[in-house]
UniProtKB/TrEMBL annotation:
InterPro entries registered for this protein in UniProt: DNA/RNA_pol_sf, RT_dom
Alphabetized UniProt keyword annotations: Nucleotidyltransferase, RNA-directed DNA polymerase, Transferase
Matching PANTHER family: REVERSE TRANSCRIPTASE DOMAIN-CONTAINING PROTEIN
Record flagged with keyword DNA damage: no
Segments traversing the membrane: none
Keyword Hydrolase set for record: no
CDD domains: RT_nLTR_like
Native species: Araneus ventricosus (Orbweaver spider)
Protein's name in the database: Putative RNA-directed DNA polymerase from transposon BS
A Pfam family recorded for this sequence: RVT_1
Reverse transcriptase domain ranges (all copies): 397-649
Length: 693
């Protein structure tokens, strides 16, 4: 949980935003704080109220039988909260009162969460700098109030990070060389060991990398320094022209405005030429430009019919939406049938080797982008010889203790627009950013696991498997279609659509399936720790959302997650008795030859088995998006009505399968897809000199 201190500095009636704890000054000039019972103040009430705009009193000892007009004249509006319900109530004491002059138009604001308690620390001491002469009965006090907030509530959060672009890399390399990591061997708690590991890294970074503030950029990154200077100068001259300070300011402003337009266009053309020139050598820069042409970050966002305009509120709205996708998982317990069916512990990982860590670091992509721990991957790759040994110790300690470090469970979520209305929260998908250390560990576990389970994976699965892809999946489908055409038969294909399948994986069901596949109990315990209690937050325009937990789903951002998913869905292929199935991750197609009505009935039986499997495994089918295509050249094809959960599947003349457009009565027109994509790209890249072909 991230905690931050938020507050306001209060002197008299004025407030000003501060990033420090709340500090207020208690005085008896403008605000009168009565610290004694109101009954003893009746004689002083008129004298006090003549000079006071606001009167605050505690320990009023009032009840509903005493009217506020008995205490103050009609110049005041009185707000009370009494403890006693009547004068004869046994509950005496307590009560607060605020009397405000009506000329200020006071009113009660219905604030959300106003009845909730807040955790805070209050310090009170005598003020040595009173604003007014002190009353001996009411000395000036300084009050410091520190609030603990579980989420930021400002529009932009300026986050201090190390500027590794300006770091002294040679000095950093020397400091890492001097660290003796053997002290990590003394730890039995993985979280404490990882904490000490990061402390050592931060000690080095403090000495070798300057800090920088992450703030919202005022100008596009491709603006040159000269263009930015012209913009600032134009703004100054515009202010002078509006004040009519100098008659020549208007002409100067117009000249600067033309110069700024010319300079911006010149910078943009230079940026386009460089992007086009480096299309082959730096494709990442090209796709960054391409994505920027599609849309910008929304200034407002709608979620649950509520409009959010503040960046912090938008980030929290994204967090609420992404959290709503998750489902509660069942408790993990090894089922008896898995215990009895398991011949032996076939799949286990006792330890990680030195070579495993070396290979994983070498395969890590070098980047300046920082992970959740604010460490870029290029630092790890550049100083790999000094990271291998400590990471080896930490990884093996994690496996021995069956615990995945909590720090490496933290995930930063970046909302990425898909299609549709850019102001609709539901049209965004989450992109997960993990720690580089977590990626290295995930990569090692993935390789070790896949080597042991690759023979258990169904041959119908083409997703996330080496030497299999969308091409092999479509080849199998095309081959069946051609064979059906050659014999003059009809091939019915059911195209299914799972709703957020990766985010709906139940932890308990997954772990029990892994036990059934022969996973060692220590490995499933480690995976249980890896999956559960993950902390996520949304990062949007330098604003950070409140944290939330992923109660289901395989964690995004690593190659271990897809492997766990295909193991979860692996037994689906065994429920189909009469049809052939093709899988690419969660994209499922059912194929069956139609020679009579009986074949259609048998295919319907497999659809019933599919729905039953989804119910048991807590996956949801988008039945409205499921469809049926009949591939045949018969003049009168068999058009059977197929249903899932008593809902009729729609028939289509074409379908998009794995980003390829398919027509039922012809072969797959690969060229059409390429033509459409190229025309779309050329439309987006119309400012480039050369057209794509």
């Amino acid at each position: 949980m991230r905690h931050e201190l938020w507050g306001l500095e209060i002197h008299n009636h004025r407030t000003s935003d501060q990033a420090a704890p709340l500090v207020s000054l208690y005085s008896n000039m403008i605000l009168l704080f009565g610290m004694t019972k109101i009954q003893s103040q009746h004689s002083k009430r008129s004298e006090a109220s003549d000079d006071q705009d606001v009167i605050l009193i505690t320990e009023t000892w009032l009840c509903v039988d005493i009217d506020s007009l008995e205490l103050f004249d009609d110049r005041y509006l009185v707000f009370r909260r009494d403890r006693g319900s009547s004068s004869d109530s046994c509950r005496r004491g307590g009560g607060v009162l605020i009397a405000v002059k009506k000329c200020f138009n006071p009113c009660i604001l219905d604030l959300p969460g106003s009845d909730l308690e807040a955790v805070c620390h209050i310090s009170v001491w005598h003020s040595d700098k009173p604003l007014v002469p002190e009353d001996k009965h009411h000395p000036a006090l300084s009050i410091s109030i520190c609030f603990v907030a579980d989420h930021p509530n400002r529009k932009n959060v300026n986050i201090s990070r190390y500027d590794f672009r300006r770091a002294d890399l040679l000095a950093m390399w020397c400091f890492f060389r001097e660290i003796d990591w053997s002290f990590l061997l003394n730890f039995n708690d993985i979280d404490k060991a990882v904490f000490s590991f990061y402390n050592c890294l931060n000690d080095v970074f403090i000495r070798t990398a300057p800090l920088r503030q992450t703030v919202t950029k005022r100008f596009p990154f491709w603006y040159t320094i000269e263009t930015r200077r012209l913009l600032k100068r134009k703004a100054r001259v515009r202010r002078l022209a509006l004040k009519c300070v100098n008659p020549d300011s208007v002409d100067e402003f117009r000249a600067l405005r033309s110069a700024v337009k010319y300079s911006i266009q010149k910078d943009y053309n230079t940026y386009l030429r460089l992007t086009e020139k480096n299309l082959i050598s730096n494709p990442k820069k090209f796709w960054s430009y391409f994505n920027n042409t599609k849309h910008n970050s929304p200034n407002s966002l709608y979620y649950n019919n509520v409009c959010y305009e503040n960046d912090g509120d938008i980030a929290n709205a994204f967090a609420d939406y992404f959290k709503s996708v998750f489902k509660p998982s069942t408790n993990y317990a090894i089922k008896n049938e898995f215990k009895s069916n398991c011949v032996g512990d076939l799949v286990k990982i006792d330890s990680v080797t030195y070579d495993d860590v070396v290979l994983a670091i070498s395969e890590l992509k070098s980047s300046l982008t920082v992970g959740v721990d604010n460490i870029p991957s290029f630092i790890i790759k550049g100083c790999a010889e000094f990271f291998i040994y400590p990471l080896l110790i930490l990884f093996n300690l994690s496996l021995r203790s069956n615990e995945f470090p909590y720090v490496w469970k933290q995930t930063r979520i970046i909302p990425v627009f898909k299609k549709g209305d850019a102001q609709d929260c539901k049209n965004y998908r989450p992109i997960a950013i993990l720690s580089p250390m977590s990626k290295i560990f995930n990569s090692i576990i993935h390789k070790r696991l896949f080597h042991q389970v690759k023979n258990l994976i169904s041959p119908s699965q083409h997703g996330f498997i080496p030497k299999r892809s969308t091409a092999t999946n479509l080849f199998c489908l095309t081959n069946k279609i051609i064979s059906s055409f050659q014999i003059g038969s009809q091939l019915d294909v059911i195209y299914t659509d799972f709703s957020k399948a990766f985010d709906s994986i139940d932890f308990g069901i997954l772990l029990n399936k892994l036990n059934g596949l022969g996973f060692h109990v220590n490995l499933t315990d480690w995976l249980h720790s890896y999956l559960c209690n993950r902390s996520l937050y949304v990062y949007f325009n330098n604003a950070v959302s409140r944290e939330f937990s992923g109660t289901s789903s395989v964690p995004q951002g690593s190659n271990l997650a897809p492997l766990l998913f295909i193991l979860f869905i692996n037994d689906l292929t065994s429920v189909f008795k009469y049809s052939l199935c093709l899988l690419f991750a969660d994209d499922l197609n059912l194929l069956s030859s139609m020679n009579s009505n009986l074949d259609a009935v048998l295919l319907q039986s497999d659809l019933d088995c599919l729905f039953k499997w989804c119910t048991v495994n807590k996956l949801h089918l988008n039945i409205e998006k499921c469809s049926i295509l009949s591939y045949t050249r018969k003049p009168q094809p068999l058009n059977h009505v197929y249903k899932i959960n008593d809902l009729v599947l729609s028939r289509s003349d074409s379908v998009t399968d794995l980003v390829n457009l398919i027509f039922p009565n012809t072969l797959i027109p690969w060229s059409l897809r390429h033509i459409v994509d190229l025309e779309f790209l050329n439309a987006k890249l119309r400012n480039f000199r050369e057209k794509l072909s």
